[in-house]
Amino acid sequence: MPARKPKFFDGDVVEAVQSYAWHSEAIGGSVVVQVGTRHAADSDLVKANPQNFISLDATQLEHEARLRELYRNDEPRVEPPPLVELVAPLADEDAVVVCGPVLGVPEGKQMRKDDPIVKEQPDAFVDVVGEGRTRENSVVALSTIRQGAGDGSTRVVFAGQWIAKDDPLVDLHPLQFALPAANPAATSARGRKR
Question: What share of the chain is helix, strand, coil (3-state, %, to 5)?
Answer without folding.
Answer: 25, 25, 50
